[in-house]
Design a protein that fits this description.
This protein is mainly α. The protein is built from 11 helices and 7 strands. Helix 1 runs parallel beside helix 8, helix 1 runs parallel beside helix 11 and helix 8 packs parallel to helix 11. It is elongated and about 55 Å long.
Length: about 300
């Protein structure tokens, strides 16, 4: 059964990747500040789909992009649409401030101005498992059922591997990318086979001028800069998390490394070696789009 399941997953992924190549023609490749990919004066307000445990640090860069002369603590409380901060200072671009503050899902009204950062699904799931939400009595992220919480927490004291695997099987915490891209609440319990991955990937191609990859966060910021015509965004003063409990200081003078050297996985990731859900196909499609746009950007911006 495991062999058949894996074969079905590989076949489904192959079909989806062909679909990505076909539909990618709907959205132009990233240029170097001049492409038609992003027209800030015509587009609806910048809208961020913030998947939990997928680059929350992006928030400060989005604020800096929209309002380059305003510090983060000067941002007013969330309201639906923001253009100016106060009576004397204006933001450069409009942004949907509620999406900057909460985990909003897909909204077709903002097609063409949405941004997202994704992470290898097993890493995201493991990071969510270890996350401690002090505002909700230390509940596991996405799990509300009290008896299930008790079961998983009891397992953690005897078998961390079993606890992680039980957590990963709960429909509430599976397929977050897919659900949010379909406009479904991220923690809604929906069986894998009832989610339309092709539609979610089509939304990625049609509605997102920027798709970032957390494992290549620094490259993602360069792509954001080139696509969105914003100020150069540096990582020199930021600790970026690439694994549970681990942070990498990214310095401008640091030697450029392959992405495999940027990620140090938590040993418990091996407990999810047999994990599969729809988000893996979504991530592969997003990664393919990212590589295509990043390669195009390097060619277009080679003169800089």
């Amino acid at each position: 059964k495991k062999m058949l399941g894996r074969a079905h997953f590989i076949l489904s992924t192959s079909i989806i990747m062909i679909f990505v190549r076909i539909t990618s023609s709907f959205f132009p490749n990233s240029g170097c500040y001049t492409s038609g990919l992003w027209q800030p004066n015509e587009a609806p307000p910048l809208y961020w789909i913030h998947v939990p445990k997928c680059g929350g640090i992006l928030q400060r860069y989005l604020f800096r992009y929209a309002c380059p002369n305003i510090t983060l603590h000067e941002i007013m409380p969330p309201n639906e649409l923001v253009r100016r901060i106060n009576q004397t200072q204006m933001c450069r671009y409009r942004y949907h401030s509620l999406s900057f503050s909460y985990h909003y899902g897909f909204n077709n009204m903002h097609c063409g101005s949405m941004v997202i950062v994704l992470r290898e699904p097993r890493r995201r799931l493991l990071s969510a498992f270890f996350y401690t939400n002090k505002r909700s009595n230390n509940n596991l992220m996405g799990i509300k059922n009290e008896s299930l919480l008790i079961k998983i927490k009891d397992l953690m004291s005897s078998s961390l591997e079993k606890a992680i695997q039980v957590y990963s099987m709960q429909s509430e915490v599976r397929n977050l990318y897919t659900k949010m891209l379909l406009g479904i609440h991220r923690y809604k319990s929906v069986p894998d086979n009832e989610l339309n991955s092709k539609k979610a990937i089509q939304s990625l191609n049609l509605c997102f001028p920027f798709i970032g990859i957390l494992e290549r966060f620094e490259d993602s910021l360069h792509l954001f800069h080139a696509t969105m015509s914003g100020s150069v965004l540096e990582l020199s003063d930021v600790n970026v998390s690439f694994r549970v409990g681990g942070y990498r200081k990214s310095l401008p003078q640091a030697k450029k490394q392959d992405e495999t050297h940027l990620v140090t996985d938590h040993p418990a990731l091996s407990y999810l070696d047999n994990f599969h859900d729809n988000d893996q196909a979504i991530y592969q499609a997003a990664h393919a789009i990212f590589l295509q746009r990043f390669s195009a950007m390097k060619v277009a911006c080679s003169h800089l």
